Amino acid sequence: MNKRTWFWLGGGGGLALVTGLMTLILSVTHSCACGIEAKDFVGAIARGQQAHYLEFGRFSGAIEPLNLGMPSETKRNRYVFEVTAHQALVYAQPKQKHLSAYVSGVFLLNSQGEMKDIVCAADRPGSQEISPPTLVNSQPTCGQGSHAI
Question: What is the pTM of this model?
């Protein structure tokens, strides 16, 4: 290292730069994108339900028949299915209080197999429960206390 490089790192604001970079690295390392798992899982399950319906003429009440390679439970969430002949809902129920709930819904619109889907997140971070989406005028709509994502 030459004297100019050492001076730049050691004085004239170099220490502040290094400290700022370390703070950024540590804050990124300790941040949690925990909700991304739930959002991604319920979205993938919704797409899996659509494919399953097109192939078998019915929605699946469990994750295994969808062949997504995903577990029904993780360290952070439990995935619960609620299925009828005309809709498939999957809830991401968080196991930790700081995580929010998510739900996806797939709705069968007609006998030709036309479907619409939606993914909803709880409005309040840390919400453990979420209202199910419904079909309003042929449009999926998030339940009270949640919003579409």
Answer: 0.76
